């Protein structure tokens, strides 16, 4: 009865949105943080953060500012080092590349980001954001939360830092900082907040509107919520005056976007438990040369924009792994947990399955390569798959995971010549196997349900021997957003070895639903 009530609530919310024909916040109920947004004609583009995932820095497209679809990534792999490759005990969970800044000037698209893992600042450029690969430019050092900006005179700048914000000109070939141009832009950017600060001002995004410069930052006062701060100047070299722009629900970090009919919004995000950091839109009015965010200082739940549609298939999607000639091996909804080992996975497009081969021996799942992932979505979602385990080797593990530091998975272990259906997860500080069932067949069906409604953040796992009759296994996992991974939970397909490499598991499909399917 409990699961039925959740479905009814979800259906009620969905029907309500459709009946009102208006957008609701959150804009996307999934992990899409550190948003940077531009409008080119009547089309909007948005970049976000996916940190340790490869490919990285997803680019999304919308024609109504509400409903988005993935169109590209800034890079396939960030770097070829131990941390990005999950080798020699190194990893880049929660690191990789962080906040990006997306711009469009004179027919060219630019995207800047940074990586403490690689120790570099990156600026990408392309003339076709949807179809052309990005050209990569990089230089040292890694400039934290940088905002890329091209002024009317053609000069290029980066603004970066936390608390003390710095600015420097960038060389026309994007190869680094122009020597002698680095200086402090704002000495104490969180000064407009009078309370003691837990997180100094960061997340810079610079805009120019009607000849004035507007710099967006976030800060976090102790005992308070994440707060939007805006500084304004008449010239980029002038002194800056700042004010608190929004302090509601912790919705913060982002900037400005306008519509073709002259309306303005601020794009921001909110920490929302285990599903991750989710984007919001907030209406903006201009008063005395300042953008005023929200309605009476509050984030509205409804917006005068077209209604939200399902995040399926634009942000996440089911996959039967069948491919036609010319199709990409993996649609854009898929990302690997780190750089993939391309010698040990393949898509059989004719028969329709994903094959994962163990390429080395690992002692735990978080250090295993080639976990193929997609976002979870809220308020509830279900992911399922079917696997052929006939070619597993002794002490192999394979299955379906809800991936975060406090992960949970359902799948198959092969031990002493016998296969077992198991559910394993991190219920306390260490992983533990919660339940196992003897398995005497080579095909098995797996399912995981994630319930984020009202931040319940609970997961349940199931198996089936025939794809029709499902049985729960392992109990309920309490999901938790943790900083070591710094990302919302993801569905993942995996196969790893703990004794010898070479075992193979074939995944017949991945099915995702925005309901609780039991």
TrEMBL record:
Provide the site residues for: Important for catalytic activity, responsible for pKa modulation of the active site Glu and correct orientation of both the proton donor and substrate: 145
**Residue ranges of every copy of the Beta-xylosidase C-terminal Concanavalin A-like domain listed in the record:** 319-512
Q: Name one GO molecular function term.
A: hydrolase activity, hydrolyzing O-glycosyl compounds
Pfam families according to UniProt: GH43_C2, Glyco_hydro_43
Output the superkingdom of the source species. Answer: Bacteria
Keyword presence, Hydrolase = yes
Q: Where is the signal peptide?
A: 1-19
List, in alphabetical order, the GO biological process terms annotated in this UniProt record: carbohydrate metabolic process
List keywords of the entry alphabetically: Glycosidase, Hydrolase, Signal
> Is Signal tagged as a keyword?
yes
As for family, the record states: Belongs to the glycosyl hydrolase 43 family.
Protein name, please? Answer: Beta-xylosidase
Q: Which organism is it from?
A: Reichenbachiella agariperforans
Taxonomy, top ranks, is: Bacteria, Pseudomonadati, Bacteroidota, Cytophagia, Cytophagales
């Amino acid at each position: 009865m409990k699961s039925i009530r959740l479905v009814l609530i979800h259906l009620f919310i969905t029907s309500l949105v459709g009946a009102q024909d208006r957008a609701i916040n959150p804009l996307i109920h999934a992990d899409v943080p550190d948003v940077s947004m531009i409008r080119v004609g009547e089309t909007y583009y948005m970049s976000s953060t996916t940190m340790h995932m490869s490919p990285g820095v997803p680019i999304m497209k919308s024609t109504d500012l509400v409903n988005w679809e993935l169109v590209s990534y800034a890079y396939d792999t960030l770097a070829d080092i131990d941390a990005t490759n999950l080798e020699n005990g190194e990893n880049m969970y929660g690191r990789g590349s962080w906040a990006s800044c997306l711009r469009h000037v004179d027919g060219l698209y630019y995207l800047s980001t940074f990586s403490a893992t690689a120790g570099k600042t990156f600026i990408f450029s392309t003339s076709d954001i949807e179809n052309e690969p990005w050209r990569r430019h990089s230089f040292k050092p890694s400039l934290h939360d940088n905002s890329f900006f091209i002024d009317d005179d053609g000069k290029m700048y980066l603004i970066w830092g936390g608390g003390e914000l710095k600015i420097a000109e960038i060389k026309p070939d994007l190869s680094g900082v122009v020597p002698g141009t680095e200086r402090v832009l704002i000495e104490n950017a969180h000064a407009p907040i009078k309370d003691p600060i837990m997180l100094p001002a960061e997340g810079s995004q610079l805009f120019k509107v009607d000849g004035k410069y507007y710099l967006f930052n976030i800060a976090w006062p102790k005992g308070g919520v994440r707060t939007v701060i805006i500084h304004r100047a008449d010239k980029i070299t002038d002194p800056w005056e700042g004010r608190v722009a929004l302090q509601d629900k912790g919705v913060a970090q982002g900037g400005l976007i306008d519509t073709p009919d002259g309306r303005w919004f601020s794009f921001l995000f909110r920490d929302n438990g285990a599903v991750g950091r989710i984007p919001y839109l907030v209406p903006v009015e201009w008063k005395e040369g300042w953008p005023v965010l929200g309605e009476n200082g509050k984030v509205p739940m409804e917006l005068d924009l077209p209604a939200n549609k399902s995040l399926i298939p634009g942000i996440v999607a089911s996959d039967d792994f069948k491919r036609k000639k010319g199709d990409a091996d993996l649609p854009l909804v898929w990302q690997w947990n780190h750089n993939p080992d391309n010698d040990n996975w393949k898509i059989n497009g004719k028969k329709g399955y994903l094959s994962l081969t163990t390429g080395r021996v690992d002692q735990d799942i978080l250090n295993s390569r080639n976990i193929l992932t997609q976002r979870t979505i809220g308020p509830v979602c279900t992911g399922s798959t079917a696997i052929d385990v006939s070619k597993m080797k002794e002490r192999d593990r394979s299955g379906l995971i809800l991936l975060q530091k406090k992960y949970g998975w359902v799948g198959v272990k092969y031990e002493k010549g016998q296969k077992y259906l198991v559910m394993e997860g991190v219920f306390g500080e260490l992983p533990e196997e919660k339940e196992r069932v003897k398995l005497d067949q080579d095909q098995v069906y797996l399912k995981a349900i994630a319930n984020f409604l009202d931040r319940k953040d609970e997961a349940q796992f199931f198996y089936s021997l025939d794809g029709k009759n499902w049985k729960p296994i392992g109990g309920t996992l309490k999901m938790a957003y943790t900083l070591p991974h710094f990302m919302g939970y993801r569905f993942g397909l995996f196969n790893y070895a703990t004794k010898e490499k070479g075992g193979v598991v074939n995944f017949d499909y991945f099915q995702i639903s925005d309901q609780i399917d039991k």
